[in-house]
Amino acid sequence: MTILLLPTEKCNFQCTYCFEPETMRQTTNELTLNLESIENSLKSIYSGAYHGAGIGIHGGEATLVGPTVIEELFKIMQKYMPPNKTLSLTTNAHLIDDNFIRMLKKYPVHIGVSMDGPPELNTLRGPDPTNKEVTARYNKRLWKTLKKMRKAGISIGAMVVLHKENAGTPEKVDKLIEWIKDLADMGITSGRLNPMGGWGSCKHLELTNEELTYAWKRLFDATMEYGLAWNPFREYVDNLLGFPVGSCTMGQCNFFSTMTISVLPDGTISNCDRTFADDLHVRSTRKERCGRYLAMNAGDCKDCKYWKICGGGCPGNGIGGDWRRKSRFCESIYELYEYIGDKLKGLLPNTYLITQNNNKDPFKVMNYNFTDRPSASGSCKPKEAKQ
Fold first, then answer.
1. How far is C-alpha 355 from the geometric centre of its chain's CA atoms?
2. pLDDT of 75-116, one tens digit each?
3. Domains in the chain with CATH codes
4. pTM of the predicted model, to two decimals?
5. What is the DSSP-derived secondary structure letter of residue 284?
6. Comparing C-alpha atoms, which of 254, 119, 261, 132 is closest to residue 176?
7. Lesser CB count within 10 Å: N end or C end of the chain?
């Protein structure tokens, strides 16, 4: 479970595939920032089922509020998080300068930087992706900023969205792998590789399941070869071995009361920002809505051996844009689990995989302890599977 603090919903980028509504990113619709209200909401959330959850700063583009406000949020987070717990900030890094870096160095912080590859592949992001000169300057500045942050000893992870422009062909995947190796040489050894969901006019940029499967397999092999800690690969390995489900996309998330909680600039407690694209900002107070997963377990996902550790995927990626359906990337998810499972069995033939457990109950998942989502019986704590 994760708590995201959103000091602003504005963004200084115009990324082609952004799922958040344009109206949210316009300055005219900005909510008033109230740090006291944000702290009160965080305190309320952290005193309940989300006690011990990770807390991160997100956006919009969070750095638009400046280093002073970000530092105040760090101080608020440290009041409630366990001592020495790593803080996190997700950013496009475009506004991170020397002053920002000096502030970041004072805290145990991990920065998730959104970027989609080397300059020739990172073309759908930036202040103006339609302008090649602006995009080239953005990419040049980004690489310099990454080097500065690493020289200052700041921990960085890459937040990559996979799409036609950076992973649509074997040649592009090759370039992406070389870039990941370059990042590792710089000391950036972790990240996330999420498929882009095609919204509206962006649908043509979405990878097919065949393309995504190819890219994921190649990227898995490369990150394993170089000893890197990229997701979803690390999470899939853990899931197959029966360790706790990692990402919320695998956690049978309730679309109306998501496992990730967002605290908006004015302190309003809301859902995961993936629901904002559907204009769903008000968080449901009901805890018994499990219909999607019971239905998928009897329909879309019936008898799937990976159901227990997949749960149909993120509702935001439902087939045909329907949150009630399983992920449209289901085929790729299945193939990646198969691929990684075969690799694990090849290395350690006696390894026990959770898929060998014949338990059919979709709510009995090994070590699955999310407490803010109900079980089939109505209880908010699913029972643990017997091994």
1. 24
2. 999 999 988 789 999 999 999 999 999 999 999 999 999 999
3. 2-207+252-262 (3.20.20.70)
4. 0.88
5. P
6. 119
7. C
